[in-house]
Amino acid sequence: MGARKGSQYLETLDRQPREIWIGGEKITSGVSKHPAFRAMAKSMAFLYDMQHDPEIAEEMTYVSPTSGERVGMSFLQPKTVEDLIKRRKMMQHWANYSGGMLGRTPDYLNSDLMALAAAHEFFGRPDKRFGENIKNYYEYIRENDLLLTHTLIHPQANRSVGPSKQADPFLAARVVDKNDEGVTIRGARMLATLPLADEIMVFPSTVIKGTRDDMPYAFAIAIPTSMKGLKFICRESFAEESKFDHPLASRFDEQDAVVIFEDVVVPWDRVFLLEDVEAANTLQEVTSGIVFMTQQVLVKNIAKTEFVLGVVCLIAETIGINEFQHVQEKIAKVIMLLESMRAFQRAGEVDASPNRWGIMTPDFKPLNAARNLYPRVFPMLRTIIQQLSASGLMALPTEETMKNGEIRPDIDMYYQAKNTSAEERIRLFRLAWDIAGSAFGSRQELYERFFFGDPVRMASALYNWYDKEPYKERVREFLRRLD
Ligand SMILES: Cc1cc2nc3c(=O)[nH]c(=O)nc-3n(C[C@H](O)[C@H](O)[C@H](O)COP(=O)(O)OP(=O)(O)OC[C@H]3O[C@@H](n4cnc5c(N)ncnc54)[C@H](O)[C@@H]3O)c2cc1C
Asked: Could you tell me if the CB of 451 is within 6 A of ligand 1?
């Protein structure tokens, strides 16, 4: 099939029954038409259609080594730095479409899967079939251009103990049975962004390490989201109808769900790692999966920072505050962040080298620093929008009020700005509110803080992984110097 069109994605979404719970309702079919999901499904369809836009199709796709069809560029297993740049350019097209507000554009997990498949020998060590499985799965997803989500974390019941020590051994998803048919999984995982995906990867955490007791919880599998026994319990929807009122929430509510496995039987060809705590603990690092996910995340973060920079500059000019020094200083902070992220990205590419599985891999040092820095600084971007906008974020009549002829002349008069009409100003500030204030905007902050893992444990992992010895030795040498 090769790179899908939007209509093909929507058709698959509606054809595959699944169990999604939202707002007290159980949805099993027609997901793409449901008010909570239809806007997001349409946005996702647009992303897929971009792969066929004649102006960028060459950048979005490449020729599959097996089928000869054009397939998504994020599946490319890079052999050179030029390949890495091709991957990055493709990702930029998708990230810019949403101003970086979408976390689960398909390239995020395509990148992970691409790296996992290149490292198939890692999976094949205990059992050759697992290595074949990950390779075949990658090719299946690539050739059919299927959309992936993932879930890595055990339920947040009692964090002072691991999954095996919870009040109920079946709280966290675990292996309950193995037979000729496959592996049976029971329990829950959190969180899975984008229940509108075709498939879900259920993998070990990138940060949290298991112990010997956690063997039944240590596995890596992937299954269709329509699999019997799989349930998604969604948070409330932030999807809004009016594009005027909520320019982002009306398009990009990806949704987040807790996933329940009610004795889901995973066929053997979808099992990549089983009851192997040591392999689970090292999987993302050894395979370089984490590096390629970070490459994608950095592209998204740059797109997001660029978008926010545009918003704050327009706000400042619109209400005539751009000449004030503290305003310029705040906008300069956004520029500093943007240029730092770009520098991290470039350093990752320039110092790339082949990993042990033979694919060209960005240098993880700058990328790891970037992925640890962004959760700490993204909240600052929302704060700056609030500081510059002040009450402008509350002077926001809705689309309905704007349409009312009786009050509209007052709005046109009293909401005008230095260099824009009232309507233009309201549109801009509504966008700012959707980043800095609304439920959608608050979720963006929580997402950036946590989606890649607990920032505290990520920083600890960075500390333990980073080679600090040369710097310690430099100081020791300095202290030894007598002159
Ligand atoms: C919007 C959003 C979308 C997400 N999407 C996905 C997704 O698609 N797929 C996915 O797999 N995950 C997803 N996640 C989940 C993400 O992986 C987790 O939020 C992250 O790993 C942290 O885990 P937690 O939320 O369970 O927090 P917890 O681990 O419960 O942490 C809560 C607090 O306790 C502290 N804490 C807990 N345990 C320890 C410890 N041992 N040592 C030190 N401090 C500790 C943490 O620092 C934190 O302050 C998403 C999260 C969010 C917010």
From this structure: yes
